[in-house]
Structure prediction request, 185 residues.
Amino acid sequence: MNSMTFLISTLFDLYIMVVILRVWLQAARADFYNPFSQFIVKATQPVVGPMRRIIPSIGSIDLATVLFAYILCVGKFVALYLISSSGAVAFSPFFLMIGAVSLLKAAGKLLFWILIIRAILSWVSQGRSPIEYVFQQLTEPMLAPVRRVIPAMGGLDLSMIVVFIALQFVNFLLGDMIGPIWYQL
Prediction:
């Protein structure tokens, strides 16, 4: 069972991150014609396209895509429950709550990994990568206010470290508020 749990959890988590990236790209007004952005749109369009005809957007937030990400989070836990309970079908309102909490945690994980990848790319890249350009568009709104307060010291940009510390603080705070299930997601 552990192998199936791992496989289902990983596949759901990866696709949930792609869907969250679509929401984030639209909210940040990132370059739509970037190859990375095109991949994200093409990977989610078959489901999100029809949903967008029914569910309107609010400002720069695409509610259809957010709803799709939430449905995926709930579906992940339903699938994991079906595997662990040997196929017994029982839907619980607990899945709806855990889906919302899981979506919040997935967004935080995605932000963390994008910041890590951006930091690594800044060490090895020449700044010409299309992925690096999109990641810069996504993360700069969070890093720029920190840079205004804490300027670069000796050519070292500390804004990324401050955002990492803030993310970790929020992670522990939510773990204290929600309980041990937060760390199991």
The mean pLDDT is 90. Residues 32 and 38 are 7 Å apart (CA to CA). The radius of gyration is 18 Å.
